[in-house]
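Why do we bother with a discrete structure alphabet at all? Because it lets us treat a fold like text: something you can write down, compare, and reason about line by line. To make this less abstract, here is a complete entry for Resolvase/invertase-type recombinase catalytic domain-containing protein. Read it the way you would read a sentence in a foreign language you are learning: slowly, and without expecting to understand everything at once.
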Amino acid sequence: MKRLGYVRVDEMGDDDSDQHDVLRGAGVRRAETFTDVACGTTPASSRPAWRLLLEQLRRGDTVVVTDLKTFGADCTDVALTLGALEHMGVSVFAVRDGVDTSQRPGPTLEALESMLQASPPAENPTAA
């Protein structure tokens, strides 16, 4: 069983060293980390490094990310990504969110709840 890392930065030249440091602290070697340059609204399935990572994953492996937002800014994309990994038998460890889906089966909903709780509420421009 492998622990593979995934890093996403929004723009070329963005500093990803903090994310790599977090993953290294979680036991992921740099050589086993896949990095994409893509905004959070780009679905994970459309990112080249993500697709390469998927090819390497096997049942029982773990994808390590700094937080769930690495998969996308949209809860729907995060849910689809988590669900696909769960279906493959791959767990997710989101270090900063404290989410480890290997701890119990079917944790996608709990992981999303964690992501929503960590996000500041969106402003409602129509509310007066």
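What the structure line is telling us, in plain words: Helices lie at 17-25, 48-56, 75-88, 108-118. Strands lie at 3-9, 33-37, 62-65, 91-94, 99-100.
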